[in-house]
Amino acid sequence: MSNHEHQESAHRPVQRKEMSRRQFLSYTLGGTTAFMVGGAVLPMVRFAVDPLLEKKSASTFVKVVEESKITSEPQVFHFKVHQVDGWYESDAQLSAYITKGDNGIFALSPVCKHLGCTIAWNTLGKHEYNCPCHGARYTVDGKNLAVAPKPLDEYEVKIENGFVYLGSIKSNTRV
Ligand code: FES
């Protein structure tokens, strides 16, 4: 480039890059569409994940039976628990074998730890829990004696105003 040409281009006015009408329409329509789709989709996403984001409430206890009815011989009691599983709410019927032990009242889950059948107390006259499905046996404390790989689960227990309250299920702490 000669010196003359260089001077000429330096004096030329700066040309701004103009947006074409087509580009303007594309940007405007694209932005509006994205805004409208976001407004419709975001509430749906929020609805879908909302139950998963809610904090789990602390373990709740359910009133089951008067303390005075509990004996050293295990007895089965049934009770209902309100459950919230994501979007689904239900009242589940649960059962527990409640017994008065040397260190207080305890409650065991009747679900066999082999394959989940329902156990029963002393059906064979040996003062044990027996499972009718494959013959699992458990002591009064829920210790597994045969077939089942683990002891029976235990409920959290709370005694208040003469009533037995049961909470969530935990691993057996007695054996
Ligand atoms: S389910 Fe109880 S022994 Fe198999």
TrEMBL record:
<feature type="transmembrane region" description="Helical">
    <location>
        <begin position="24"/>
        <end position="45"/>
    </location>
</feature>
<protein>
    <submittedName>
        <fullName>Ubiquinol-cytochrome c reductase iron-sulfur subunit</fullName>
    </submittedName>
</protein>
<keyword id="KW-0408">Iron</keyword>
<dbReference type="GO" id="GO:0004497">
    <property type="term" value="F:monooxygenase activity"/>
</dbReference>
<keyword id="KW-1133">Transmembrane helix</keyword>
<dbReference type="InterPro" id="IPR014349">
    <property type="entry name" value="Rieske_Fe-S_prot"/>
</dbReference>
<dbReference type="InterPro" id="IPR017941">
    <property type="entry name" value="Rieske_2Fe-2S"/>
</dbReference>
<dbReference type="Pfam" id="PF00355">
    <property type="entry name" value="Rieske"/>
</dbReference>
<dbReference type="InterPro" id="IPR036922">
    <property type="entry name" value="Rieske_2Fe-2S_sf"/>
</dbReference>
<keyword id="KW-0472">Membrane</keyword>
<keyword id="KW-0812">Transmembrane</keyword>
<feature type="domain" description="Rieske">
    <location>
        <begin position="84"/>
        <end position="166"/>
    </location>
</feature>
<dbReference type="GO" id="GO:0051537">
    <property type="term" value="F:2 iron, 2 sulfur cluster binding"/>
</dbReference>
<dbReference type="GO" id="GO:0016705">
    <property type="term" value="F:oxidoreductase activity, acting on paired donors, with incorporation or reduction of molecular oxygen"/>
</dbReference>
<keyword id="KW-0411">Iron-sulfur</keyword>
<keyword id="KW-0001">2Fe-2S</keyword>
<keyword id="KW-1015">Disulfide bond</keyword>
<dbReference type="InterPro" id="IPR006311">
    <property type="entry name" value="TAT_signal"/>
</dbReference>
<dbReference type="GO" id="GO:0046872">
    <property type="term" value="F:metal ion binding"/>
</dbReference>
<keyword id="KW-0479">Metal-binding</keyword>
